[in-house]
Structure formats: structure tokens, C-alpha cells
Design goal:
With 157 residues, this protein is α/β, with parallel strands linked by helices. The chain contains 4 helices and 5 strands, in the order H-E-H-E-H-E-E-E-H. It has one domain. Helix 2 links the parallel strand 1 and strand 2. Helix 2 packs parallel to helix 4.
Length: 157
């Protein structure tokens, strides 16, 4: 025997309004997330423009925490990267200072210098490519940096 539940019109309207409300909340959340990412990029670019004469068209911004499990792999990829990029580094002051010395050709910025870092960046590593306007994850970032370095080496050699 099958029990059939019949919804009344007020119940259907109530469920429909709840669904629309949830869609609206998701849209607002995604919009706020994108705005914070945009604001983060603008703030980093303002800091870099204050230090550099000009910014490359394919400028990259790397957000990295010293506790990132991919840090060793990224450390070598950043050290070997032939271009310039902004590196927003989250970690102790002594660590940020040490990396500023190691990565002299890049613009190393302590995360504390920025007014806010998007919350969803805290445990992840992100690489932003200005030309494409896309964010890459850890594995993609390492591949991208290595690929660009090898193509720059081929062009210069």
C-alpha cells in the first residue's frame, strides 16, 4: 500500500518561496565572494604599482600560506619562475622577511599588509593570472609556473 501525500496550494507556494530564497542567498554569497576576490586583487595591484615601474600584461598573484602542504613544491616553482609576480604570503614575520630575501625578483607582500584576505583563501593556495582573469589551484599553479618558465627559457636561449 502506497501512502500518497497531497500538498495543498499554500504548502506548494511555501516550498517554492523557500527554494527561491535559497537561490537568492546562493547568488548573494557568490557575488560577495567574487567582490572580495576582486578587492583583494585591486589592493595587491596597488601595492605592486607603488613598487614597480610597470606591470606585465600576464602578471600573476600567488596567495600562499607557510602551512600549505604543497609549500615545498611551490617554493621551488617560484624560485625557478623566470617572470615577476606578486606573492601574498601568510606566515610569521621572520618567515615573510626570509622569503622576501629569497624571492628578490618578486613582490613579496605580507598578508597582514592587506586590509582583508578572502576567507576561502585561508587554507588554500591560489594563483591569479591577470591576462586570463582565472584562479588556479596548487597543482595547476605549479604546472603553469613551470610551463611559463620553460617557454621563457626557450625564447631566451
Amino acid at each position: 500500500m502506497v501512502l500518497a501525500t497531497v500538498l495543498t496550494q499554500p504548502q506548494i507556494l511555501s516550498l517554492l518561496s523557500l527554494a527561491l530564497y535559497l537561490v537568492f542567498v546562493c547568488i548573494i554569497y557568490q557575488g560577495a565572494k567574487k567582490y572580495k576576490e576582486w578587492r583583494f586583487i585591486q589592493e595587491v595591484m596597488e601595492l605592486v604599482e607603488g613598487q614597480a615601474e610597470r606591470i606585465e600584461s600576464d602578471f600573476k598573484i600567488l596567495y600562499l600560506t607557510c602551512h600549505n602542504p604543497n609549500f615545498k613544491q611551490l617554493n621551488s616553482a617560484v624560485s625557478e619562475f623566470a617572470g615577476k609576480m606578486a606573492i601574498v604570503l601568510e606566515g610569521p614575520d621572520w618567515f615573510v622577511h626570509k622569503k622576501k630575501v629569497c624571492w628578490r625578483k618578486h613582490h613579496v607582500i605580507a598578508a597582514e599588509q592587506l586590509s582583508q584576505v578572502p576567507i576561502h583563501f585561508r587554507d588554500a593556495m591560489r594563483l591569479y593570472c591577470k591576462r586570463t582573469g582565472k584562479w588556479l589551484g596548487a597543482e595547476e599553479a605549479v604546472q603553469d609556473l613551470q610551463q611559463i618558465s620553460s617557454s621563457l627559457d626557450e625564447n631566451s636561449g
